[in-house]
Specification:
The chain has one helix and four strands; from the N terminus they run ββββα. With 68 residues, the protein is an alpha+beta fold. The protein has a domain of 40 residues.
Length: 68
């Protein structure tokens, strides 16, 4: 059972789905390519981990675009 993707950051979406005894999360970019993934023991923790990762990826990209 897959959740509807949630737009976590302007360029990323997070999906969470059951993976046997664990919950798998995937962060995808605007092209649908997976950028990060992981597993956690509960759906709630998996959701938060995916959202945190999407936010971090977005922040790293913004930092990379800055000119110093």
């Amino acid at each position: 059972m897959e959740d509807v993707p949630f737009q976590a950051a302007p360029d990323y979406a997070v999906t969470v789905q059951s993976a046997g005894a664990a919950w798998a999360w995937v962060v995808r970019d605007v092209d649908g390519a997976p950028r990060a993934r992981g597993e956690d023991a509960s759906r709630d923790v998996a959701w938060r981990a995916g959202m945190l990762t999407a936010g971090a990826l977005g922040a790293f990209e913004r930092i990379g675009r800055r000119r110093f």
